[in-house]
Every structure is written in C-alpha cells, then in structure tokens.
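Question thread 4412

I'm putting together a teaching handout and wanted feedback from people who do this every day. The idea is simple: show students a protein as raw sequence, then show them the structure tokens that encode its fold, then repeat with a second protein so they can compare. Below is the first pair exactly as I plan to print it.
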Amino acid sequence: MKKSCIVILLLSIFALNKLFAQSVTVEAKIDSLQILIGEQAKIELQVASNPNQRVVFPVYPDTLVRGVEVLEVSKPDTQYLNNRQRMVISQEYIITSFDSALYYLPPMIIDVDNQQYASNALALKVFSVPVDTLNPDAFFGQKRVMKPAFVWADWYGLIACSFIAIPLLILLIYFVIRIRDNKPIIRKVKVEPKLPPHQAAMQAIERIKNEKVWQKGEPKEYYTQLTDTIRTYIRDRFGFNALEMTSSEIIERLLEDNDKEAIKDLKELFQTADLVKFAKHDPLINENDANLMNAIEFIDETKIPEDENAKPQPTEITIIEKRSLRTKILLGCGIGLLSAGLIAMFIYIAMQLYNLLA
C-alpha cells in the first residue's frame, strides 16, 4: 500500500512537470494608462512558451481599435530561461490617439503552434489639452519657421564642385574654339636660323620672279610685292621703318648715307611702281624685267658683307599643322564628356543651392 502511494506521487509530479513545461502564458502591459491627445504610449506583449514552439504575433495595419492608431511595431525580442527549456518573446507596439475618450483595448491574440491564446485586456484614457477660455489673449498663432544655423560643412560639397567646374568650363571653351578654327591643341615650335636681310629679300624676289604676276595682267600686284620686299629689306638693313614711309621719304633718307648711283636705280623702280599703283600705268615687259634687276642690284650693292665666322641668330617659327581625323574624334569625345560632366555638376550645384536656401 505504501509503495503504491509513492508510485502514484511520482507519476503525479512527472505529469505536473510535463504540463508546466508545455504551458503557454501571454501577458500585455501598457506603460501609461493616461495620455494627452497626440502623445504616445507603449504596449509590451510578452509570450512564454517552449523553445520548439512556433509563435506568431498579431499584426495591426494602422489601428488597434477605432480611435487608437498604431505608429510603430518593434521586432520580437527573444530570451531563453532554465537552460533553454523556456522561451520568452516580447514585442512592443507604439500607439497614439487624437480623440479624447476612455478606450477599451481588447485582448491581443497570439498564435502558438496553430493554437490561439489571448492576453489580458487593457484600457487607455486620452485627455484633451486644457485650454484657458477665460484668457483668450493668451493664445498665440503659429510660430514662423526657424532657419537652421549656418554650418560650413553643409557648403563643402558645393564649394568643391564649383572649384572643379570652373577649370573644366574653361577647358571646354578652349576645346570648342580649337575645333572650330581647326587648330591643333598643341602647337609645334621649330627653331631655325634667322636669314640676313639680303638673303631674305633675294628669296622673296625669286618667288616673285617665278610667279610672273605681270604676265597675268596684274602689274599693280607685281609692283606691290616688289616694293614691299625692298621696303622690308631697307627696314632690316638700315634700321628705319620704310614700310610706313613714302617713296620720296625713303630716297631722301637713303641719300644721306649711301651710294647715289645705287639709289638712282631704286628711284626708277619706285617711280614706276607709283605710276602703276596710282596712275594706272601699264609698263612694258622689258620695263618690268629692268625694275626687277634694279631691285636685285640695289640689294647686292647695299648688303652687309657676310662674316664666315659669325653664328646665325636663332628665331622661333611657329608651325601649325592641320589636325588629323583621329585627333578630331578624340577632341569631340572629350568635348562630349566635359559637357556631360559639367551638366551633372551644374544640376548638383542647383539642387544643393535649392536645398540650402529653401
């Protein structure tokens, strides 16, 4: 009899432990039973169950009950107890209300392994804001929008983009100008020795002689080129600006220091040239040849003797080469990329200015 009682007692304890291990408890708590209109309250829903059970919390789209809105739902927080033999899961609901009333918050339903469990019911009292109707002068209208304090950090990006955009814009304008006038991006500079005045003049006369402009019925052009060559030679040889002087002024200046016989031939050349330019004189072919020879003789008689040991004076000559097709394509692509980058920067700058000044 005594042994039977012990067995029954042990079986009862085992059954109670199993029942306790499988029990599910649900509890709801609210942090404030009374709030003002627009204030917030927090409901904590807590479920205790076995670790292997599946727990599903209720979902509220926007309202808990009519007049009580759900603003935010936190993620479930899980804790394990008794060496992971029990599990406690908590979830918080942030609620508010904009109507003064006493609200009954019904039990919240929890689904545990497809079996529903209900929490305890709650209550929430919402009060309206007290208004002093006896002193209406104490009411104030809406305050103006306050402008935020000036902070340099808000302008760093805008300033940096502005400093980058300015040189890019200058570079874009330079590229556009270059592609329009068909000039290369980089000019090649070649250094060549400077020719003495008489050699440069003889090269020009040789070119005039080969062109034979007078045979094409253009004596004025022929004498213009010939006299300009002589004037340039006189400027470089004697050191005065013969290009800005008349024929008679040049002759008078040369008579002061040079051979009159050499200047006589030059005087005949200038006289014929003036007649052709201003009196529409049509010289004969032998007359054109004679004046050409007069120019050559004047240069030979007045040139500076060459010093074989003298070093030629260097001069820089800029050589402009036409741009290749490949360079044009690369230049066009560069202009396109620069344009796209500048447009993006200007849009960004405009948006930043709008956001900072609005």
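The second pair follows. I'd like the answer to focus on this one:
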Amino acid sequence: MLTHEEQAVKTTYFSIVGNTILALAKGIIGYFGNSYALIADAIESTTDIFSSLLVLFGLKYSSKPADKNHPYGHGRAEPLVTFMVVGFLVASASIIAYESIQNIRTPHELPKSYTLIFLGGIIIIKEIFYRIVLAKSKQTNSSSLKADAWHHRSDAITSLTAFIGILIAITMGKGYESADDWAALVASFAILFNSYLIFRPALGEVMDEHFYDELIDKIRIVSGKVNGVINTEKCFVRKAGMRFFIDLHIEVNADLTVKEGHEIAHRLKDHLLIEFPEVVDVLIHVEPDN
C-alpha cells in the first residue's frame, strides 16, 4: 500500500501531465479562435504546471526523515511551498487582468464559435481534476496538494467565465467583441479570491493555529481505553507536512511509582501511534490524579 507521501507525489504527476496537455490545447485553440479569454486560460494553466512542479519538490523534500538539524523532520517545507504556489496564482491573475484591460481597449474580431465546444469540455475535465486532487489532499493531509487542487478549480472558473464571455460575444454580435476579455478580467479576480482560500490554512499551519478538534477528541477517547490512564488533560496538535505531532497530558494513580507511570505513558504512546498512522510522534506528560 502506498504511503501518504507516495500517493501525494503520484497525484502531482497526474496534475503536471494534465495541465501541460490542456495549456497547449487552450493556447492553440485560443490563438486560432480569436479568444483572449481562452489564451488567458492557457496562461493560467501554464502557471499551474510550474506550481505543480513546486508542489512536487515540496512533497519530496518535506517527506525527508528527521536529522540532527531538523529533529521534527522537514514537513514545514510543504506550507512554504504552498505560499510560493499562491504567488504563482497571484502573478497569473495580475497578468490576465492587465492583458484583459489592454484587449478591452483594442478592437478585435469576434471569437470563433467552436471555442465554446472546447471550453465546455475543459470545464468538465478541470472540475474532475479538482475533485480527484482534493480527495487525495484530504486523504494525505497535504496542504500543498490542496493548493494544487484549487489550481484546477480556479482553472475551471476561468474557463467558465471565458465560456460565458464568448457566448455573449457570439450571440450579441458586432459591438460585443470584448465580452470574452471582460470575462477574463472577472476570472482574474476569482483567481485572487481562490489564492486567499489557499493561503489562509497554510499560514495557520506555519503558525501552529488550532484546527484539529476532531483529531483531539479521537485521541482522548482512545487514550481513555488504555489501562492505567485515568483521564486526559491538555492535548495539543501540531501539523508538519502530512504528519502530526501530539503533546498530551494524562492523569494516573498518584500512588504509582515513577517507573509504573513511565510504563503507562509508553504503552499509551505505542497505542496512539498504531491507532493514528498519520501521527509521527507523541510527547506524553504524566500527572498524578487528584
């Protein structure tokens, strides 16, 4: 069975190949079909290729084991890569917005009708890509894979706005040639909004923000079933890459020896690591019961 890291890397290769094929197709169809909205879509897909390569690098680096200089491993590299991916999104949105404004001010021909058929297929394909990659990001706890999934969703949004713009331009005819350029401009703002949705949780991960109530509840339930554990007190969860570190305070019988309390803590730690494969380490503090 593949590890979380191996699943995430495999999914990223899927994104890279898909984005490369679609970027080329969009650029060619957009150029010959007189649609800047489609060319803007191709630009966005091209940045997706580079961001997916960044994600691939981040996944491979963050999965490196702990060493002397990195006792907690290299997992924090993943949200840092997510920040760079967001930078690509913001840059592509800015380029699309600038070029859209330039094209709105410049007279040009109506888009070709066949671009609509092509865009309809792109919207469906990118939404499927989004759902596949997002499911894998949840399965592997990968923030950078989630960012990659949102790249596919932003691409679907760009394609949808392009579809609407081209449809308006073709339906309304002369005087509405710039409708698809306006559509590309709207898409650039949609991409910026998605950038924030990706950036926010990655920032929370770097700042050790509290996101993990459900995991903590499960840890308390499992801990209570271990012989010798009377109660759990503080429980903190930190995420590093696709793995979690747990700090847990437990109560044991105050009359136990230090050795007996130590044995309970080790037994609990071993049990938690088996029950939660996504947890890489558990630090347990033993307290006497009241």
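Top answer:
Good format. For the second protein you could add a caption like this: The chain is about 70% helix and 10% strand. Strands lie at 231-240, 243-252, 279-288.
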